[in-house]
Design brief:
The complex is a heterodimer of chains A (312) and B (323). Chain A contains 9 helices and 11 strands. Chain A has 312 residues and is an alpha/beta fold. A two-stranded antiparallel ribbon of chain B has the order 1-2. In chain B, helix 1 packs across helix 13 and helix 4 packs across helix 7. The longest helix of chain B has 45 residues. Classes of the chains: A alpha/beta (312), B mainly alpha (323). Chains A and B meet through helix 1, strand 1, strand 2 and helix 3 of A and strand 1, helix 3, helix 5, helix 12 and helix 13 of B.
Chain lengths: 312, 323
């Protein structure tokens, strides 16, 4: 009996392999982006794009294949990147898929011909951040909008809740001097006129949810806010930008977090930009290239250009 | 003070219940996992279509206009890297086991055995990191220019790492089984004029065959289920590959789950498809474990038969056991 079972199972295994051979061509699954944001959150200070190391590359062979490193389907960094560059659903199928920012950094660091993208806040000195359309990624260029590869961190509130005292107070705090201080050097503040915030003495519970990219920032905000207002509790849930926007629309949560701009169909929500996050395109230090246009970045990540010599 | 027999009986029954519960816990855990996997995964499989899911080559779960949920590339990926690991790891493992069981000086053994145990205890993320900073660049360095490779994140890299990772499993089980071969067989061979090596390779190894096979099967189970280390070195492209494209990247079933599970929307078809990938993986492991227990059972029967025969043919069982 047991033998019979074993033979059947082994047969199934063999059959799967045969079936596999039949279907053996094509296989051009194109990975696609979603609206869900990334876990984000490496708290390394930015390397500061202004001090790019001098171009190395005596042994750099431009005829070699470009090693494209991308994040996984569903990552918010990837979502922002493909939307801004116009890569969209057409990510190059041969691109190496990495699951975390750290793996992208290691990949590009150890591969002379590598290219990848990470949040500006997670840049390390071991890789080279490219100028995009002639602009170096830095807090200044992100803030004045000249660095194109950037996305806003938004808080969204529906019309029913916008007059709520507690919600208004929390949003006032996030845009105040005390709130914006928590950004540190990880992200970029976009608030020019930062007012002083005074504790309100309110009590209650705030439900905040959405983008996991915004979550680390929200955790900092919560800590600082609760220190000033001990009577208030803040519950933070994840789920991604799309979830945050939906639940804020329905009023399931008080405040939604989003790491992308609102779409046309979502404009009925009240939104507040609490910070900006840049996406840096990184290459190996041995690579002599220092800048690219957005169009070139797109061509590389869609597989139009596969060799470094194809850039010129 | 004597306890009444009724009180004793209650206590006995109570303890019996406690032990029974403890024994049940692991079974319940496995059963729950099964229920969860199949209840969440099967609807997704049927939703996508069985042949489309198992035979489809396009994986684009988040494509807004035309999502694709074929996992054939990942099933093949798992089979390829496992096969690669077996090709690279099993010969080394079996020779090591032979050496440790039959040829190793005692002093050296005291050094090798703990090293092996340590190897089994190293977390897979460490293997993965080792692969990422050593194996991957080394492969790229060696073959990159010649074969116009994109990066060292390849099937080969995954196979090498897995080949190393299955060594402790293969060696430990194979060694145990080689040691369990009745000494009389070895002695008989030597008595007939065989050299030590000849006796080991021609007599001891063949009679431990099913045990060694069991070691290989368990190694397969270890390799097919490994996730973290593979994810870090394999490249994870969702593209269909052929076996000889081992210098290209690949995605396995395990890595497909771990890569995309983090951001998946709960209750979506994408979520279901990832769990369904787990169902397929689970079935593979089930097959492997069944094979293992069959091999193990055969071995036990054979062993008792062998020792019986040895005893019958050799009534003086107090022969020296020194080697």
């Amino acid at each position: 009996m047991k033998k019979l079972l074993a033979i059947t199972l082994a047969l199934m295994l063999a059959l799967t392999m045969v079936a596999a051979c039949d279907g053996g061509d094509g296989g051009n699954a194109t990975p696609t982006p979603t609206n869900n944001p990334p876990a984000g959150g490496d708290n390394n200070p930015p390397a500061g794009g202004d001090n790019n190391p001098p171009a190395g590359g005596d042994n750099f062979d431009a005829d070699r294949v470009i090693a494209v490193y991308t994040r996984e389907d569903g990552s918010g960094t990837r979502d922002a990147f493909v939307n801004i560059t116009g890569v969209g659903d057409d990510m190059y199928i041969e691109a190496v898929v990495m699951r975390e920012t750290a793996q992208i950094l290691t990949g590009v660091e150890t591969s002379d011909y590598g290219i990848g993208y990470v949040s500006v806040g997670s840049l390390s000195a071991a890789v080279k951040a490219l100028k995009i359309d002639g602009v170096t990624p830095s807090n200044d260029t992100i803030k004045d909008g000249s660095y194109a590869l950037q996305r806003p961190f938004l808080l969204v509130v529906n019309d029913d809740k916008i007059d709520d005292e507690l919600i208004a107070d929390f949003i006032e705090f996030t845009l105040s001097k005390q709130g914006q201080e928590t950004i540190g050097t990880t992200w970029t503040s976009s608030v020019d006129d930062q007012k002083d915030y005074a504790a309100s003495g309110l009590t209650g519970v705030l439900k905040v949810g959405g983008s996991t990219s915004v979550e680390p920032f929200m955790n900092r905000l919560r800590e600082a806010y609760i220190a000033l207002n001990p009577g208030i509790e803040i519950e933070i849930s994840g789920g991604g930008s799309g979830v945050g926007i939906n639940e804020a629309t329905e009023g399931v949560i008080d405040i939604g977090m989003s790491s992308r701009s609102l779409r046309d169909t979502e404009q009925h929500l009240n939104s507040f930009t609490i910070a900006l996050d840049g996406v840096a395109v990184i290459v190996n230090k041995a690579n002599p290239i220092n800048e690219m246009t957005i169009e070139q970045v797109k061509d590389i990540f869609t597989g139009e250009i596969t060799r470094w010599s194809g850039l010129s | 003070m004597k306890q009444s027999s009724a009180a004793l009986k209650i206590r006995e029954n109570l303890m019996r219940a406690v032990f029974f519960t403890a024994a049940l816990a692991s079974i319940v855990a496995v059963a729950l996992i099964c229920v969860f996997l199949f209840s969440q995964g099967l609807p997704a499989i049927f939703n996508v279509g069985v042949s489309e899911f198992l035979g489809g080559t396009r994986w684009a779960p988040l494509n807004s206009s035309d999502p694709g949920f074929g996992i054939l590339a990942f099933i093949l990926g798992s089979i390829y890297v496992t096969a690669g690991a077996i090709i690279l790891g099993v010969p080394i493992g079996i020779f090591s086991a032979l050496f440790m069981a039959r040829m190793c000086p005692k002093g050296l053994y005291r050094f090798i055995k703990p090293a092996l145990n340590l190897m089994a205890g190293v977390p897979s993320v460490i293997y993965g990191f080792f692969g990422m900073v050593v194996i991957v660049p080394a492969i790229f360095e060696a073959f990159g220019k010649q074969f116009d490779m994109m990066s060292g994140n390849t099937m080969l890299a995954a196979s090498i790492i897995l080949g190393i990772m299955i060594l402790p499993t293969v060696i430990t089980i194979a060694e145990t089984n080689l040691r369990a071969v009745p000494q009389e067989l070895y002695e008989g061979a030597v008595a007939l004029g065989a050299s030590h090596e000849r006796a080991v390779f021609k007599v001891v190894l063949p009679s431990a065959r099913s045990g060694v096979m069991a070691a290989v099967v368990l190694g397969v189970g270890r390799a097919i289920g490994e996730t973290m280390a593979v994810q870090m070195v394999a490249g994870n492209q969702p593209a269909l590959r052929l076996p000889w494209e081992f210098l290209k990247g690949i995605r396995t079933m395990t890595t497909n789950i771990v890569i995309e599970m983090g951001y998946v929307e709960y209750g979506s078809l994408h979520n279901g498809a990832l769990i369904a990938t787990g169902v397929v993986l689970f079935v593979f492991i089930l097959i492997i474990n069944t094979l293992f227990s069959i091999l193990n059972r055969d071995k036990q029967e054979k062993r008792s038969l062998l020792s019986l025969r040895a005893k019958r043919g050799n009534p003086d069982t107090k022969l020296t056991k020194e080697q």
